[in-house]
Design goal:
The chain is 0% helix and 49% strand. The protein contains no helices and 26 strands.
């Protein structure tokens, strides 16, 4: 695989199992015998990962960059519920998470409580403090790369609170430019996974690497094994009414309320009534 920008062409390299070992941005990757990413290096930052028997990432060690250290993750099924960091020889809780039927509801970052709000795709859209005051909000490009904004709409280079549950609620590692989709790592820059699909062509009958059949807008792949469609909840809305907008995924229904709308009445086809 190659990419040409101007007169410069860069190439990606793969091992004999089909795992990307060098990205087109110079990143390097190492894997274990089960094709799990064990080490990644990008722009002077190296992350090393360890896993349990269910492929859940339980430890990561970061060297270089602004936030080096050793981190340990505690899981409830596939929900990350706590993270510890080794500080001065002791394990200290740095974040904890509470989930509802449709995703992450609240989190503590460095001892402070914050609430997460999602859009219809399950992606985190807003973060408020315990009093409901907006602290950050987020946008994404078509492949899921995040953009960060403070409460005054100033764009940030990264979340000031260390928020990682972002596109479709999955964990983002800004140092690597990758999402951890549980069984594989995904690069929104490429729109592809680093590893081939662990379930083979049962997940995508035509391509082992592409994300959601090249349609990240109406599909998701929370486990890195098989895409699923997101189905819009239809209906009409009228000026002054609150709008509930839901999508169904594999884990249930998420309904997001947008509040009163100051617009004429439309149906879902976009036609004014």
């Amino acid at each position: 695989m190659s990419r040409t920008i101007g007169n410069t062409t860069t190439y990606a390299s793969y091992d004999y199992r089909g795992n990307m070992t060098q990205g087109m941005d110079g990143s390097t990757y190492t894997y274990d015998a089960q094709n799990r990413l064990t080490q990644a290096t990008r722009n002077g930052v190296t992350m090393s990962f360890a896993y349990d028997g269910l492929n859940r990432q339980v430890r990561r060690v970061v060297t270089g960059g602004p936030n080096p250290g050793s981190f340990y993750s505690v899981w409830d099924g596939w929900d990350l519920i706590e993270e510890y960091q080794r500080i001065n020889g002791n394990w200290t809780v740095t974040s904890a998470y509470v989930y509802g039927a449709s995703g992450l509801i609240a989190a503590t970052y460095n001892g402070q409580v914050y609430f997460h709000f999602q859009d219809a795709s399950g992606s985190t859209s807003h973060l408020t403090d315990a009093n409901g005051v907006l602290r950050e909000w987020y946008r994404y490009d078509l492949q899921g790369a995040p953009m960060f904004y403070d409460a005054n709409n100033n764009q940030l280079s990264a979340s000031a609170f260390g928020v990682r549950h972002l596109f479709t609620g999955q964990q983002w590692y800004p140092e690597l430019g990758l999402y951890d989709l549980r069984n594989r790592f995904y690069s929104p820059d490429l729109g592809r996974f680093l590893q081939p699909d662990p379930v083979g062509f049962s997940g995508d009958a035509t391509n082992l690497y592409r994300y959601c059949g090249n349609n990240a807008v109406t599909r998701s792949d929370p486990n890195g094994e098989a895409m699923q469609n997101l189905k819009a909840e239809g209906g009409d809305y009228t000026r002054g009414d609150a709008l509930d907008y839901g999508y169904w995924g594999g884990d249930g229904t998420a309904t997001i309320s947008f509040g009163p709308l100051g617009a004429p009445t439309f149906d879902w086809t976009g036609e004014e009534l």
